[in-house]
Amino acid sequence: xxxxxxxxxxxxxxxxSFLKERTRRFDDEMARIRRGYGSLVxxxxxxxxxxxxxxVDPLGNPCWRMAEYMPQALRVWLTTNRLGFERxxxxxxxxxxxxxxxxxxxxxxxxHGDYYELHVEGSGEPxxxxxxxAFARWVEQHRDNPDxxxxxxxxxxxxxxxxxxxPKRSKFPRIYEAHIGMSQDARNHTPxxxxxxxxxxxxxLPRIKNCGYTAVQLMGVPEHPLYKSFGxxxxxxxAPSSRYGEPDGFRRLVDQAHRLGLAxxxxxxxxxxxxxxxxxxxxxxxxxxxxxxxxxxWGTPSFDYDKDMTRRFLLSNCRYWTEEFQVDxxxxxxxxxxxxxxxxxxxxxxxxGRCFYAPDGSRRTNASGELYLCLANELIHELNPAAVSVAExxxxxxxxxxxxxxxxxxxxxxxxxxxPDFWGKYVKKPSAMGRLWYEMTNHRPYDRTIxxxxxxxxxxxxxxxxxxxxxxxxxxxxxxxxNATWNETRGVALYRLMRGITLMSADAxxxxxxxxxxxxxEWLDDQEHAHRQWQLAEDELSFYAALARWDKAQLxxxxxxxxxxFAKNPEFRFIHEDKRLLAFSRGKLLxxxxxxxxxxxxxxxxxxxxxxxxxxxxxxxxxxxxxxNLVPSDPxxxxxxxxxxxxxxxxxxxxxPPLTMLVLERR
Length: 667
Hints:
Blueprint: H1 16-37, H2 40-43, H3 46-49, E1 51-56, E2 62-69, E3 73-80, E4 94-97, E5 100-106, E6 115-122, E7 128-131, E8 139-141, E9 149-152, E10 174-179, H4 197-210, E11 215-219, E12 222-223, E13 236-240, H5 247-259, E14 263-268, H6 308-324, E15 329-332, H7 335-339, H8 367-383, E16 388-391, E17 413-415, H9 418-426, H10 433-441, E18 449-451, H11 466-471, H12 486-504, E19 509-513, H13 543-559, H14 563-566, E20 571-576, E21 581-586, E22 589-594, E23 601-608, E24 612-618, E25 638-640, E26 650-656, E27 660-666
Parallel strand pairs: 10-11, 10-19, 11-14, 14-15, 15-16, 16-17, 17-18, 18-19
Antiparallel strand pairs: 1-2, 2-5, 3-6, 4-5, 6-7, 6-9, 8-9, 12-13, 20-21, 21-22, 22-27, 23-26, 24-25, 24-27
Helix pairs in contact: 1-8, 4-5, 6-8, 12-13
């Protein structure tokens, strides 16, 4: 019998003390939080206590209150464009103890849209330094000086009211990963132009819904000064990026996604932050602030989870986006960097023991990082029981998707990060079929994984998308069945199979990066390629449009119409190494693959549950860019298992052309 959680997994018996310690630490911390704050939600309230907010002063008068946590500061001033950004005595914050600073200002001292910043004199740097307030909700880049960023007062006369309810949680999420600014149509792109929230609402949300996806995962929303970081070096954790519009623009985006039944998953970077001091929170009070001194692979400051205020800051960030913008969940970036004191740098993690011990035998798990993740997942699901939390984690740490009382960290899903690496190697040199099946289904029985062929990691800053690795420069000239050579026909056919088997064998969900659904030919960067060529898929006679139809048909005609089948695990049926054949079932669905590039299989015979099987879809159909050697008919072709070959299991015989996937249903 398969283990239900890491605590009863025999393979992890040597590491059970780590898992039990994880549980105990979480229970102890939750007890402490309840004693001191009443609840985890109340503990995650820094965004309500700190920053610039309307309030009531000690005399009961309406006012503005500015509060900051700056333990290394000696003096702190708030200043605005109304003051010419000069420091005034009455705008100086008072040290109220425990690293907290505060000032009350008259109600007419500030108004919506005013620019404001902090000037800080601290023990860690000489002189007075300028800082963008950490809890600012609207931050803009100076139009003439791109290195200068400034907070603005967000206090609209009419606050945005959400009109649509959150969608129900999908049991098998189909996630569309996108970047708002870089999703802009290439036909509208000019040097320096960026797509907006409203552009995304108008152009992208209907496209994503129509393609059959159930959720959109958004990169680059929290403010970041370096556009080419794709949003993974965050400076202002509580401000939606102003590159795409005002904060209410993002609220409208989420609301309109909900109108279409799409969940919104936000990328959050809680492992590290932008290294820029003037624009971000690095050395915010001129000292370490919320960070430690460990170096990481990006050269950015890493959050110190040993500090109570660090955990509260990040938990408050989760609560803020959940409540203020109604997002439906989070994809936590670089979770591996949070789990290990050495960030797991340079380790292949080829053995599970490396998740707990470093090569020199020392303990490598970051207990405080684990604790933060347990708390974050507990908070997210307390705020919204239907929320989705996803871990981007490379080491295979056991128990990520189990609750803390089972020795886990509480995520709903983890990304199957080994799959893109596998496919990257496969396109260079096809692997054994047994290896392919192993990679498609390699996860612990209690870990829920999201499968994908490629995400943004494979498509940014000059790295080639999978389709480009298969077809190459011919993508610009021969992406049509009417002028394609063997190179393009073979590449497109294999690309269909790669995406087909990855989706159909996926454990708990599937992810696609924007444009990959139709084989977008180019990578993304922050300049020349900061767009997508959506017009390619509009040419109905091209391979691009055919690939888009293939993606849509898989999601809508197979996954969506057979959700009960996808609630069950894939079951292996057959494999043949030399002929490169593979078959598996999922509920009443049967999937058969021929990965051989030149040899058809006229007598593909293997064991199945007895019954009648009808053809639903073939990747070789001309509408998908195939050669038309296997096209399901109407009424559909029927295949009957051979009753003379057994009782519980019987033989079935199929025909499969080269590089073809066939989907059948038992009726």
